[in-house]
Amino acid sequence: LEKIILFGSYSRGTWVEEGYVKDGVTYEYKSDFDILVLTRKGIAEGHWLGLCIDEHIDKHPGIKTEVNIIHHGIDFLNRKLEENYYFFVDIVAEGVLLYDTGKYQLATPGAMTPAAQSQKAQADFEYWFGKANRLFESFEFNYQKEYHSEAAFLLHQATESYYTAVLLVHTDYKPRGHNIKWLGKQASSINEQFREVFPTRNRREKELLQLLKKAYVDSRYRKDYTITAEELQYLAERVLHLRELTEALCRKEIQR
Questions:
Q1: pLDDT mean over 57-83
Q2: Strand locations in 61-155, DSSP E?
């Protein structure tokens, strides 16, 4: 462990705990702690150290605010800084250094013109938005065939790909992992409209989001994973809303 950096809304002093009403519905939002952990060598997804950190935070009685941790090796971060990946450039510029061994220096950000950034964002959007649309088409085929488990997995993948398009276009970075609930929170920090994609105002809405979240693994490997046509229909409608938001906001950002 070499460095720990707090970034995002809490480092900028723009964190929120708020609620608002739209169309007669109350939505609540609370900022998360965003933390970058830098190690001497990179930690692979699912590595025991990352899992232990996450488990410790989940079980810690004193932590009431949700914590999002990303972890990378020093060399990876410095390479991204030199390539001017503005997600990491902003972390270094705005972040708060919580821990530092002092053994490693961070690289100086390289140069990238606004035109080059726009071109890269356009390429990322075309790839991930197009991929998400094809995955949704595959979902529809499996849904019509009543292959519900397969349909759930494909719907999860479409959701993940739409979120990936949003994050890459707006931040030039997509965290590792397949947790669509977390990806949704990252997207919500970009634009509050994403908070309404999968509402969690009551127990049933939370259960439905959890059902889609679990589809990444359980729909493929667990015989007891079940999801009904009605549940799939509801979730598909939410993903179509996600698609509309993704296209509109990404195109606006690219043209900015």
A1: 87
A2: 67-73, 96-100
